[in-house]
Design brief:
The complex is a heterodimer of chains A (about 425) and B (about 425). With about 425 residues, chain A is α/β, with parallel strands linked by helices. Chain A is about 40% helix and about 10% strand. With about 425 residues, chain B is an alpha/beta fold. The chains are: A alpha/beta (about 425), B alpha/beta (about 425). The interface of A and B includes residues 266, 361, 362 and 383 of A.
């Protein structure tokens, strides 16, 4: 498998999703997984999976002794593996910038020169593809599609790509065919033997906007890790007994933040005992602050900025309502996390997670009246709140990565014709 | 001789429009007129009117051997009055033949029988009144909303003077007993209790399109055990022409029933004739409420989850104050809001059949309904401030109502005292 993020070093939803899928797949007992990361830090959880770092894979032959390899890469790999990989160098890459180990440097993040890093990643993938033995290649999100294609060309093994998001969604449909990200996605899909989409919504985008054969696209909904007990037992630090309505995510056009502000403003006019929180940051944050100020609601409308780690769960703990009004959301894990914390959620019908959730309120992202009505109902009618809290928690606890892993492995088997 | 009792139910609720929270206190009109008119007319033209005409023709052709019973909810009658009065004329024609019995139910098609005995009586009286005003007819048979029944309801209905009740022949109540006999309620030996034959009824309303013909159907009844003498076959009226459109041959199926019945020695009978002529074999006790709904045959589709309980609690909590009010519009709105359908739309039961729900989800249904109830509470508080205790309020109301009489009484007393005083004066003057 090719991936870009792995816990604990996560920047978005891709890391936990990749982790969950790998754990689920290994859990079936029918698969071993080798996971390629751009730059492992050594503190990754890897008991059940073999992690190879692209930054630790040589593409130029360097004569280094065992002790030196141990000293440089020992924190995340066995030196023998370095030598095995070195034996698989397939072309002369000495024109590239490489370090003393013959390896290309990776940031493992989303740097300015991301496209270059993606290209380097696929060069490295060629080395790894020659060394490892495997039956399936599984590439997570567009960053790793070129690597997946390369591995497929080297080995002839079937390529599965996992569409966690599409450029079409990220740009609200405003991307043209010349967009490099769109190009990479399209290329990946054209080469793939099976396309796993995180929701039916994404599957339809892949079929309609990327013109893929529906037969090779399947929906593979994400799941959610069970809450850690220390998070569940965290005390909610509530200063007031006012009701709190929360938005949590990047404040960007894709997330439908302006619809949230409009709906919340309507709700606040009628419900004086409520407060609204917008957590996260993004390119529209300033204009949202201005919008709230223009509406004269700044005293009950709070912006927290970016929340990290347990701050997210602390935020959920003090919330009464969680809203995800995304204009287009391939999956959207946060309502599931909110429901785990016992916070009833309102999600837009344009969110992929809505396809597997019953016990939440769904409305169109543009229907701010319906959204406001749902917010008002959840803070005004305690029975509804309690019902959704309990039923939602029960429901979301049934959505596990073990089940997803089972489905992924079944799909592999069908692809390989193993029954 | 085997008797067949056909019963059709007709009900349409007043569906609520999208009532947002900012409408609370601002907008006091709750109904989706467009949807209500459209649904009622569609049903009337596809199903109710052609089916009623068919029944009339069947009665005339069979020389009044064919008999049928109808149960029409009060809210449906009001909608027919508004949108489709010609259907009521069809029913008048049917009633005029003397072969069509009208059953009594609750005006709103509500759940009051399980929740509030006072409101239940009011509801039944309202329904009797509208039946009398529309058809000059006094119903004697009671059919509850969704055929809901238990022993307490039986006792209540008997106290209201009905001759008999029809409910669902659920297996978990009847056990080894057959539904095809006359039973009586536990509270009173002379009030009959008929059980719907679930299998024969659902053969028509659910399985008709699998291929069913009148000959086979009547022979199932005719071939039953000798002593089983009453078969109650009940369903929603829109089964004819609505659920099974005319193209399925449902009309022909029904039209063929009387002649097959004649050859197989089956007799059609109305419920009231059954209660009058067929002796009861035993009392039948029903502890927990049963209904004809779904597979469970209980009330869980209406009162199954916390949302439904809360909505029901809220609407019945304003009952007492509402009936102190003289505001007829408020009372009318209240009656429309009691329709059981509103609660059924909130059902979260797996696979619950919620026909024509106007809502996306159970939660929408709940939110919308609760917003309307919030507005009702505001209106009621405008009438009587919530600070006054309900008991005080009723005492004061009574005082005001009786003030005319009280003044008259006091005036009479004054007159008497004055007369007495002047009488006393005279003798003293003599002195």
């Amino acid at each position: 498998m090719f991936g870009w993020e792995w816990p604990p070093h996560i920047l978005g939803g891709l890391g936990p999703a990749s982790y969950g899928i790998v754990r689920g797949v290994v859990n079936t007992g029918e698969c071993d997984v080798t996971f390629v990361l751009p730059k492992p830090q050594g503190d990754e959880e890897k008991g059940f999976v073999h992690i190879i770092g692209a930054a630790n894979t040589p593409v130029v032959w360097r004569d280094v002794d065992w002790n030196y390899v141990q000293q440089r890469f020992g924190y995340c790999m066995d030196p023998q593996e370095y030598y095995d990989l070195r034996n698989c160098i397939y072309a002369d890459f000495s024109h590239l910038y490489t370090n003393d180990m013959g390896c290309i440097e990776f940031s493992g993040r989303y740097p300015k020169n991301l496209l270059e890093e993606i290209n380097n990643y696929s060069i490295v993938a060629g080395v790894i593809a020659r060394k490892e033995s495997y039956d399936i290649i599984h590439a997570h999100d567009w960053l790793t599609y070129p690597a997946g294609i390369h591995a497929k060309q080297v080995s002839g093994k079937p390529l599965v790509i996992h569409v966690h998001a599409t450029q079409y969604d990220r740009t609200r449909g405003m991307c043209d065919a010349g967009d490099p990200t769109f190009q990479i996605e399209l290329d990946g899909m054209n080469h793939a033997d099976l396309i796993m989409c995180v929701s039916e919504l994404t599957r339809q985008t892949v079929i309609q906007k990327y013109h893929q054969n529906p037969d090779k696209c399947i929906a593979m909904h994400n799941a959610v890790e069970p809450m850690k007990p220390e998070v569940l037992n965290m005390e909610a630090k509530r200063g007031t007994d006012e009701k709190v309505i929360t938005f949590l995510g990047r404040i960007t056009a894709q997330k439908g933040c302006e619809y949230f502000v409009e709906a919340a403003a309507r709700c606040l006019q009628k419900a004086p005992n409520a407060r609204v929180v917008m957590a996260g940051n993004g390119d529209l944050m300033e204009s949202m602050i201005r919008l709230v100020a223009r509406k004269g609601l700044a005293d009950r409308f709070h912006f927290t900025g970016f929340l990290r780690g347990n701050q997210v769960y602390e935020m959920f703990k003090v919330s009464d309502v969680y809203v995800m009004p995304s204009v287009s959301e391939p999956f959207g894990i946060s309502p599931l996390e909110a429901m785990q914390c016992g916070v009833p959620s309102i999600i837009s019908k344009q969110s992929g997670c809505g396809e597997i959730l019953e016990n939440c309120i769904k409305c169109d992202y543009w229907d701010i009246d319906a959204m406001a009505d749902a917010m008002y109902a959840l803070i005004t009618y305690p029975t509804l709140h309690k019902y959704l809290q309990e039923a939602g928690r029960n429901e979301v606890n049934q959505i596990t990565w073990e089940k997803v892993g089972r489905r992924v492995v079944d799909a592999y088997k069908r692809l390989l014709g193993w029954g | 001789m085997k008797n067949v009792c056909l019963l059709f139910e007709i009900h349409q609720p007043f569906r609520l429009k999208k009532y947002r929270f900012y409408d609370i206190g601002a907008d006091h009109y709750y109904y989706d007129d467009y949807a209500n008119e459209e649904i009622l007319k569609r049903n009337a033209y596809q199903s109710y009117i052609p089916a009623a005409k068919m029944l009339l023709e069947m009665i005339n052709r069979s020389h009044k051997e064919f008999k049928v019973a109808l149960s029409i909810s009060g809210v449906a009658m009001e909608q027919f009055e508004m949108y489709c009065p010609e259907f009521l004329d069809c029913v008048r024609d049917l009633v005029a033949t003397g072969c069509c019995e009208l059953c009594c139910e609750t005006f709103s098609h509500c759940l009051s029988s399980l929740i509030n005995a006072d409101d239940f009586r009011i509801q039944v009286d309202l329904h009797k009144k509208i039946i009398y005003e529309t058809f000059k007819y006094e119903p004697k048979t009671f059919v509850n909303t969704g055929m809901i029944y238990n022993d307490e309801i039986g006792a209540e209905v008997a106290a209201m003077g009905f001759r008999g009740i029809i409910t669902e022949g659920t297996k978990h109540v009847l056990g080894w007993r057959s539904p095809n006999y006359m039973y009586n309620i536990t509270a009173k030996a002379d009030v009959g209790l008929l059980f719907r034959n679930t299998k024969l009824s659902e053969d028509i309303c659910q399985n008709f399109q699998n291929g069913l013909d009148a000959g086979t159907y009547t022979s199932w009844i005719a071939d039953g055990p000798e002593t089983e003498n009453i078969y109650v076959i009940a369903m929603n009226f829109d089964v004819i022409g609505g659920i099974h459109p005319a193209s399925t041959g449902i009309f022909e199926f029904f039209k063929a029933l009387p002649s097959f019945a004649e050859t197989k020695k089956l007799r059609f009978i109305t419920p009231i004739e059954a209660f009058d002529n067929i002796p009861s074999v035993a009392p039948a006790s029903v502890g927990h409420a049963i209904s004809w709904d779904g597979y469970d045959k209980d009330v869980s589709a209406w009162m199954g989850n916390d949302l439904q309980h809360e909505a029901i609690r809220s609407v019945y909590s304003i009952f007492e104050r509402l009936h102190l009010s003289k505001n007829q519009v408020l009372k009318q709105d209240y009656a429309y809001l009691l329709s059981a359908d509103h609660f059924k739309f909130m059902s979260t039961k797996q696979g619950a059949y919620v026909p024509f729900s106007p809502y996306d989800s159970s939660f929408d249904a709940f939110t919308n309904y609760m917003n309307v109830i919030s507005d009702m509470q505001i209106r009621l508080n405008q009438e009587f401030p919530s600070s006054i205790d309900t008991d005080d309020l009723s005492a004061q109301q009574q005082l005001i109502e009786n003030q005319g009489k009280e003044i008259e009484r006091l005036q009479a007393k004054i007159a008497k005292l004055e007369a007495g005083a002047s009488a006393k004066k005279k003798p003293s003057a003599k002195k």
